[in-house]
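Chain A, query sequence.
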Amino acid sequence: MRAGTPQSAPRLACGAAAWRRSRTSPSFYKKKALNCVARAIKQQGPVPEVDLSILQKYILREWFWTFLAASIVLIIVMFGVSLGEMLGDIADGRIPPGLLGVLTLLELPELLATILPLSVFIAVIWGLGRIYRDQEMAVMRASGFGWTMLLRPLFNLLLPVSGLLLLLGLFLSPLSAATAQQKLEQAFRNAAEWGLQAGKFHVLRGGDLILYVESVERDGRTLRHVFIQQRDGDREQIWAAETGYYWLDRETGNRYLTLENGQITEGGEGTLDFGIMEFARNDLKLPEPEERIKPAELEARSTADVFGDDTPESVAEFQWRVSPAIAALVLGLLAIPLAHSAPREGRGGRALLGILAYTIYANVLYMCRNWLAKGEIDALPGLWWVHLLVLVVALVWLQRQGRMVGRG
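Chain A, predicted structure.
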């Protein structure tokens, strides 16, 4: 054994560790991709298939991280909007305060079905646009990297997202809507979840209805010593009862408060016309906003029930549940020609064009959904013609653009 061999072992270990870190770093793949393209240019031949897979993985990784970042940002924004709407519903009496957290989580499948197609669209435009601006695409084009070679990493991203959107639209979103509806129906019968607190005055309907309960039983439904002041124009009623409880009419969706063993005192301002009526049981209809939640909401029905129903509303609902998955595929293909930018071209022009294309696409889908639900258009064109039209535009644009050299 030669002198100095034991001391060289730590150096070899450190060198091996550094070599492993360099092989797993993002810059390693980028350098290797550019080196293989340079070798292909030097040989004046097409890039070998093994090197193409490296470039495709590099592009796919760029799209995936951009898609993930865009999805997180959009989820936060949409959660804020949804939370604001729910707080407004709580203030108007639509939703019990105790169900705010549960209903917010149950909104997640519907939010994901809304934002994931847009996230895919943003990811492809932003990620591919950065490759154009950094001149990486110029090197790829010089080596014969055609636009068709982008389809493999593109579909590696789009197909899982579309599968997830189908799962959300056909199964998870209806299940979440049905669960939310069930929670609301239970809350209609539970005074504690509805936010009714013992010993406090509750002002409803802009002050025209004031409700006071001395105590609430452990079951959360039975009320003790109920006091109600109700105003209708110049007339005013005072209700007082020993017990009461909530119940919900499933046919109409109206909420009622049943009072037992009480009396009603009725009178008016500026008059001596007063009346007192005693009762053993009396049902008081509680105020409901115009847009109250209906027990048999279409969104809460299962996909099998909706698919088997031939009514225009059910046909529109089924096609709408499938639309996000199709829109993700179409928008992903449309984003490739939209992502192209000249070497010194700014980001603003392509971004505005992409926003305009997405806005037109989404608005036309919404309009056709309303027309289909009202029976103004048939089920056969339905929403399908919108997807087909945008898909044809994307494919024609890809074929005629002529931005990338070669057909791959």
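Residues 201-285 form one domain. The first helix runs from residue 5 to 24.
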